[in-house]
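Technical annex B. To support the medicinal chemistry partners, we prepared a structural model of the target in complex with flavin-adenine dinucleotide, based solely on the information shown next.
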Amino acid sequence: MTALETDVVIVGVGSVGSMASWQFASRGQRVIGVDRFSIPGPFSAYAGESRLFRKVYAEGGHYTPLLQRSQDLWRDLEKISGTRLLNTTGAVTIYDEHNPRLASLLAAGKENGLDYEFLRGDEARTKYAEHVIRDTDVTIFDPEGGYLKSERAVTAALVEATRLGAKFLGNRKAHSVEPYGDRYIVRTDQEEIIASRVIISQGNGAGAVCKELGVHLSVLPQILTWFPVVDPAAFCREDMPVFLRRAEEDGRSDKAQFYGFPSADGWTVKVVASIFLDEVESMEKPPTWDPQHLDTIRAWVREFIPGLIPDPVRVATCADGHLPDTTALFGGVPGMDGVVVAAGFSGHGFKMASALGAIAADLLLDGTTATDVSFMNPARFLGPDTRLTSLALS
Ligand SMILES: Cc1cc2nc3c(=O)[nH]c(=O)nc-3n(C[C@H](O)[C@H](O)[C@H](O)COP(=O)(O)OP(=O)(O)OC[C@H]3O[C@@H](n4cnc5c(N)ncnc54)[C@H](O)[C@@H]3O)c2cc1C
């Protein structure tokens, strides 16, 4: 079996892995990235054209510094690649006034001094004419929100990392990382790679490493749908905000929501619902969807966005790895100096991927980072004295 040597191995070259490759390469490190699919690949968690970016964040104000650093890095990557990656259209969240998430959304804005606009009634109906606004609805507009062209952003980072000397090896699966003298050896099904630093960023393939870290990773495929527009002018405006909406009817959970984007192709709008297929072990063989999986999103589109024809013309599945507390594992692995894990982004990791790549480089090259990521402590599901010496990766 071939043996390779480098400074940094990136296991899983998806959203976080591509950004880490760019960041380590830009700090003069020799990088080898490995992925079980092609690089960029079809089944990674960033597939499907676009991902929301928001600053006023219902998940909590503790994400704000991370999101600020990400925003700066997306702009850097735009300059490097000469392409627009982060479209700042603004983001409108439409909630029933009784939604428990409304308070945390407003608190995230207030505590961090972020701008937002709060509307209801006819003012909201005039501003967001594409949406049905009910009397009990309120709208919160985040002017710094928008969307990332996710596949484009990953490709831009890979191109820059390659220009800086990074090497990428696709279509091989990593199986383990073990100590090798004062370094580590990463074993794939095609080679062994020796390095002093390792980033484990396996996305929905991180089940084995999460198990080692004491927590179950649920791989939950989600359906992406594209609905045709009745009047293209309404959904193709440069300034049409991305939108999120709670759909709380019928006693559904307060997490039942859908969101969407301005039209990217001039005739359809992408809408994504918080509706998941059954948990799968892996996306190595992506699951198929049945027509009844589309019933709820069809009904929501019919009710809330009348300018769309409520039958999708394009459907795709894509999965993230979800953790019980919806907070990722990110940071050093206890007992394994030189190893950083990034896993379990639970449906909201793309917007922060650029900063996570940079913070991984801070942690492994400087030994510390100025951006607080302690709330994602990867040791939080382990006993306080647990120290690991090796990790299974599949
Ligand atoms: C439908 C959907 C909608 C979403 N919407 C948003 C949104 O609007 N905004 C937002 O911020 N986030 C969103 N997310 C979440 C976000 O896309 C993910 O959190 C993020 O892309 C995860 O990045 P990652 O690097 O962990 O995983 P990935 O990008 O999937 O990268 C992991 C890589 O590891 C590889 N890999 C796995 N196992 C192995 C192995 N053993 N050996 C080698 N390679 C391996 C995989 O092939 C993959 O390429 C959404 C996710 C989904 C599924």
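Notes passed to the chemistry partners:
Residues 177 and 186 are 4 Å apart (CA to CA).
Residues 11-17, 34-37, 41, 44-46, 51-52, 173-174, 201-205, 222, 224, 272, 318-320, 342, 345, 347-351, 393-394 surround flavin-adenine dinucleotide (CB under 6 Å).
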